[in-house]
Amino acid sequence: MKNNEKIDFDLNFLDKDFKEKPKTSPKTQNTTTPSSGGLSDSAKKWAWGIGIFLVIIIIGAFSDDSSTSSTSSTTTNNGMVQVGQYMCSSYYANRADELAPSSITKTSLTTQASDLDSMNTNLENEKSEVENEYVDETDQYSIDQHNEKVDTYNYHLQQYKNKYDSYDSSFNSYNTSVDTYNNFLKSNCTPN
Predict the structure, then answer these.
(1) N or C: which end of the chain has fewer CB within 10 A?
(2) Would you say residue 30 has pLDDT above 60?
């Protein structure tokens, strides 16, 4: 190796300062942030969280807990309207319909969680490739190729974090609307 050649071997390719945030999934369900696999412990927790979240969403889609789904109202003989598991006056039933969380948003959150899970799997594979790659420390080309892969991994990791932050915001907003809806029914209607 010549004395004027520079070897720039990047060993700090992981974003070790990234902190995960605890999550609460759509009402009646609890989970953690997305992760799994061959990434850091934080990334593993993320993948597991997304997997658990998707299972819970699927279960929630088939459950009878109508307080977390869109309202289905039935009018009874005494003028009361059944809204899920509650009996409400027609006024409160109409108001509950206005406050009901959007099923479109719930579907979008499920799709976003699935996309995050796929991204996480790709990140695991990418990280494994970078970690297990042979790099000839005496060959600048080999070092440059490795550093390019590291940069690509870090770019994809940042994209994942950005998408997760957007998902997190939508997720929290959806849960707030579910809370508002459930609290309205509890305050203004009678359990069936």
Answers:
(1) N
(2) no
Task: Specify the pTM.
Answer: 0.58
Q: Which two tokens stand for residue 51?
A: 């997997």
What is the rounded distance in angstroms from the CA atom of residue 34 to the CA atom of residue 17?
17
Per-residue CA distances from 50 to 3, 19, 87, 112, 191 (Å): 50, 16, 35, 10, 33
Three state DSSP letters for 18-32: CCCCCCCCCCCCCCC
Inter-residue contact 95 to 188 (CB < 8 Å): yes
Question: Which residues fall within 8 angstroms of residue 16, CB to CB, at 6 or more apart?
Answer: 40
Tell me how far apart the alpha carbons of residues 35 and 47 are, in angstroms, rounded to a whole number: 2
Q: How far apart are CA 144 and CA 105, in angstroms?
A: 44
* Mean pLDDT to the nearest integer, 149-158: 96
Band of pLDDT at residue 137, cut at 50, 70 and 90: very high
pLDDT surpassing 70 at residue 66 = no
